[in-house]
Every structure is written in structure tokens, then in C-alpha cells.
Amino acid sequence: MRMPWYPWSLRHLLDGRPTVGGLMDLCDENYRYFMKLAPGLRLLRGRCLSRAGDSVGLYLEILEQTPYTTLVRLTYYFDHAGERRPDPDARLRIYHDARQVEVLDLRQRSLPLDKDIHSLSLKQKWDANLFLSKWLAYCVRQGHLFSGAPGNAQGRLMPAEV
Questions:
Q1: N or C: which end of the chain has fewer CB within 10 A?
Q2: pTM for this one?
Q3: In whole angstroms, how far apart are CA 79 and each of 60, 63, 82, 87?
Q4: Domain limits for position 75
């Protein structure tokens, strides 16, 4: 199992001050992880579910497709007090021409973030994108895969029932 590679040290991640260039590198890394997770992204439509072994189902919803971008929602659903709750729940814009993934909205319990992601500081955007990077790497290691190929041989792509 290969761990994610970062062009910065772990110490810098925890203690250093993020830079715009570092954030762009992180968004680029998130794009690479996302393309491993959904290599046929442009062929996907609607809601899809990936099941990898006995891990929790990962849901991907295609919200919008344009020639240069794709807007998606990525989440797990957990049963809590008789209802299904998403956590983490991310709305992401994938820039195909720039090969970047931007976190538009991220709701989850482990990383406190302000509600309005557009007015976040560089540090808060860094935190959200670092969380996404770790989550995407985890999903890839678990074996999650969304493929636009009809009749996916691994049988992991199916309409989501949420």
C-alpha cells in the first residue's frame, strides 16, 4: 500500500503557513486522486454508488457537466436515530482543463469549518483540501471505483438509492 506523496514535509503541513502555490499543488493532487476514483467521470450521470468489499458505500452524484468542469457531490451515508445522514459530505468542482479539484462545500464532523467556504481564509481552504486529499486517498486504497463503462466488470457502479 503506497502512502500519498506530498512535496512538503509532514511538519510543514502541521506547523507551516500554507501558500497559494501549495494550495494549488494540493488541488492538483486531489484531481489525480479523484481521477483514480472516477476515471470515466465524463461518462457518469446522476447518482452512483461504489461498494468496495465490506466498506461503507461511497456515493457520487453528478450535479452538472460542462465542457471544462464537472460539479459533484461525494459522501457516505450513515444511519443515525432512524435517519440517513451524510458524513463527510462534499460538493466539489472538477476543472478538467486545469486538472484541479476545488472544495466548494465540505460538511463533516472531524474538521470544524465556517459555513461559507467562499470567504474562508487560505488556512481554512488548505484544511478543507487537505481533508479531501486524505479522504480521497483513503477511498482509493479501499478500492472504491466509479466507472462510466456500461456493465462494469467489477459490478461496483450502480444507481444509488438514497
A1: N
A2: 0.78
A3: 18, 24, 6, 10
A4: 10-143
